[in-house]
Amino acid sequence: MRLQGLLKSLFIYSVFTCALIGEFQAQEKAQNPLIYADVPDMSIIRVGDTYYMSSTTMHMNPGVPIMKSQDLTNWKLVNYAYDTLVANDAMNLDNGQQTYGRGSWASSLRYHEGVYYLSTFSATSGMTHIYTTKDIENGPWELHEFKPAYHDHTLFFEDGKIYMIWGAGELSIVELNADLSGVKEETKKILIENATAPIGSNIILPAEGSQLFKHDGKFYLFNIAWPRGGMRTVIIHRADDIMGPYEGRLALQDQGVAQGGLIDTPEGDWYAYLFQDSGAVGRIPYLVPVEWKDGWPVLGVEGKVPETLDLPENKSLIPGIAHSDDFSREKGDGSLPLVWQWNHNPNNDLWSVEERPGFLRLKTGRIDTAFVQAKNTLTQRTLGPVSSGTVKLDVSQMKAGDRAGLTVLQKKYGIIGVRCDADTKQIYMSKNAEDGGVIATVPLNQNEVFFKIECDFRNRTDKAYFYYSLDGKTWNELGSVLQMQYTLPHFMGYRFGLFNYATETPGGWVDFDYFEIEDAIRHSK
């Protein structure tokens, strides 16, 4: 009986141990979403055992971020394709102009004969821009540009020629000049008359977002479309020749995860990289396993997007995608980490991390009456499922009419900051004018103040909470909760932003002691 009891105990122990090991191994696997932050319109390549990814940041500068990964799961920013896309009134926020939701859109990243090619297009410039370099992480980039702006295009190299495929619904192809100075007009042709046909005619969005790949001698063209009453859907067309004819099929329709392309690992595994519209945090990347059957890439696990992947587990997005900054620099280093991007083109004469070592100084140089028209708002991504941004601010040199503080930026933005009126200062919480402008104020009788904004994106709750502190320890909620909303006029996920602008007299400044981002929230109700 004792032996039977011992064997039973050993059996129970082994079952329990196996269950624990299985749970631990599951936790070690990569999780979808791959990146819980706004990284839309990805284009991914593999060079040896290293992956590079480009994405869209539209009106933010520097632009077209380059990210790097050694395992296809964990990514970090390593470069941008440009410092400024173009210098016109819209991109400069001059003369009442702006280019929210435009700037540069979906990029195509390629590697060919030792050269990296990154192309994008812009309604702001009206041009197609192609950047080339032999060193994707350090540059320099050489710019080639021409008109018009070819919508959602993909670059492809075949038989010594460079092609571009673009369009929406009706997809076209053209050969580029060898020096990338433009296109050979005589080579333009319609490639697929109705690329949306595989999902029918009742649609919201025709097939676009083209990305072309070649595997085992066949060409595979990825597109996204959106059936009315349905969800974002992956369509794939296949051909034996780059010029067609192409046959198409619906490739994935699950959770709205769509738009992207194919990537393989050095071990021979295949994945589709795609993204999902996920509310106010933005458009977030997913990976979907791919199997090849009958000459077609088959996406998903029984047609579904899996929660886990047979890849190394995801680590924190901090510091690779977002990063705290105490603004301390080595002497002579006046730069900003890659996680920071300016809202539109900055005026580089009006900011510094050197004038007061250990601080970011934002100076005013003109009068702005609207927050969204203000120069030099410095931003970085919010993170899901929850995140917070905190700043410490010295406001002793503000002038009457100045506004400075911390924001979560989208069309329906929220602010907590300081406004200086005549000889008095107030802490204020504000929403966009559509929600009534200033919501609440309290007097400020000291020169240093702390602000925090907490964002809750869980289950698309999409709420932001606003706090101030006079000592960095005791926090007070101010104003009302902001119901964040992803809107097409800004066309990007919410961003934390540091700002300072003048409404009466330019020449004042504020000093940010630090910005701290955490993937946690502690104070929200």
UniProtKB/TrEMBL annotation:
Q: Which organism is it from?
A: Leeuwenhoekiella nanhaiensis
Taxonomically, the superkingdom here is: Bacteria
Give the UniProt keywords, A-Z.
Glycosidase, Hydrolase
In Swiss-Prot or TrEMBL terms, this protein is called Glycoside hydrolase
What does the record give under GO molecular function?
hydrolase activity, hydrolyzing O-glycosyl compounds
InterPro entries recorded: ConA-like_dom_sf (IPR013320), GH43_C2 (IPR041542), Glyco_hydro_43 (IPR006710), Glyco_hydro_beta-prop_sf (IPR023296), Glycosyl_Hydrlase_43 (IPR051795)
| UniProt domain Beta-xylosidase C-terminal Concanavalin A-like: residue ranges | 325-518
What are the catalytic residues? Answer: D41 (proton acceptor), E208 (proton donor)
- What lineage is on file? Bacteria, Pseudomonadati, Bacteroidota, Flavobacteriia, Flavobacteriales
Gene Ontology biological process terms in this record: carbohydrate metabolic process
Question: In which family does this protein belong, per the annotation?
Answer: Belongs to the glycosyl hydrolase 43 family.
Residues the record annotates as the site (Important for catalytic activity, responsible for pKa modulation of the active site Glu and correct orientation of both the proton donor and substrate) are: D152
SUPFAM superfamilies attached here?
A: Arabinanase/levansucrase/invertase, Concanavalin A-like lectins/glucanases
